[in-house]
Amino acid sequence: MPSIDHDDFDLACEIVQDATNFAVEARRDLSPDAIVQKSDGSVVTAVDVALQVMILTRLEEVFGAIPVIAEEDLQSLAGKPAAQAHCRALLRDWGMDASEANITRALSSGGLDGSTAAVESAWVLDPIDGTQGFVDGDHWCPCLALLSRGEVVFACNGHPTVLGGMLLSAAKGAGAFWFPLAGGEFTVAEVSQAALAADAPVRLVAPARATESQIRARMSVGLATGHPCTLVHSDSQAKYAHVIAGLADVAYSRRGNGPGKYIWDHAGAILLARESGAWVGDTDGGDIDLSLGRRLSGSHAVICAARGLGPSIARVLAQRDLEEGVHAEGRGIARSTP
């Protein structure tokens, strides 16, 4: 298996930057025929699939054949000839090989599953996290991360809807940095853990399409910190970017009684948030286990917090899990300290 030189991470950032800018342009001419509903009820577009082909093709050209965990596959646009044609047209516009053979090869390469604890290097890719937001004009982001033996060591997310359009990247132990998608100088990403003033509101992220019950639940979590609460609406890994950018104080995603969240929706943001100084953890204050394959099946939640709020949010969500009868093997009640 090829080894990855960390000095080449800038090349991976360039690929994500190009992909994000391509998607911004493609969204302007997104036809209804390019939008497909998957069997699970979620939405995928021809842009998602074309971006995955483009990103994986270019990654292999630069880094060699590295195993990949990716969201899209050959079934994403199956039986949808108009969407498939749109995908091929996008690839040609981007100067990529749009042949059926290349598309099949790229999409077939993203099916890694099972434990990655012994895998030296593996990419984790979501070509467009938040596809519904992409369609609706809300928040979305291409997300790329690199696992080494089940731990994220590099991440790069494109955020066209945050801070005017930015790329956010980090390598383990080296900090996190914002780069303008249009090009320019970088800035350091820094999250404050200074305590909120007693009367200051906690800004908590809620889904863009939050139901009344979801709004009530989020408000109750925020109010449980002892502060007033205001909601900031965002989905995808952009919700964590809001905390990193100082636009929100808390973002979280609960497992509930489901089978576990998908790794591509969280892996990159976990490193990006930690390297920027955010508190990141599960409901017991412990780490998120990213080595289990395609799902985060061993975790109750992914919590990202500024302003010293992480432990209190973890305790509130742990108590909610108890009340709802949620269980995850090997996890417990939140500790009093992170």
Structure description:
It is a single chain. By secondary structure, this protein is an alpha+beta fold. It folds into two domains: 183 residues, Fructose-1,6-Bisphosphatase, Chain A, domain 1; 123 residues, D-Maltodextrin-Binding Protein, domain 2 (3-Layer(aba) Sandwich). Helix content is 32%, strand content 22%. The strands form five sheets. A seven-stranded mixed sheet has the order 3-4-5-6-7-8-9, with helices on both faces. A three-stranded antiparallel sheet has the order 12-16-14, sandwiched between helices. A two-stranded antiparallel sheet has the order 1-2. The chain is globular.
Order of helices and strands: HEEHEHHEHEEEEEEHEHEEHEEEH
User: What is the averaged pLDDT score?
Assistant: 94
User: Can you tell me the CATH class of the largest domain?
Assistant: Alpha Beta
Number of domains: 2
Chart the SSEs and their pairings.
Blueprint: H1 9-28, E1 35-37, E2 43-45, H2 46-63, E3 68-70, H3 81-93, H4 100-108, E4 122-129, H5 131-136, E5 141-148, E6 151-159, E7 166-171, E8 176-180, E9 187-188, E10 202-206, H6 212-223, E11 229-233, H7 238-244, E12 250-254, E13 261-262, H8 267-275, E14 279-281, E15 295-296, E16 301-305, H9 310-324
Parallel strand pairs: 3-4, 10-11
Antiparallel strand pairs: 1-2, 4-5, 5-6, 6-7, 7-8, 8-9, 12-16, 13-15, 14-16
Helix pairs in contact: 1-2, 2-3, 2-4, 7-8
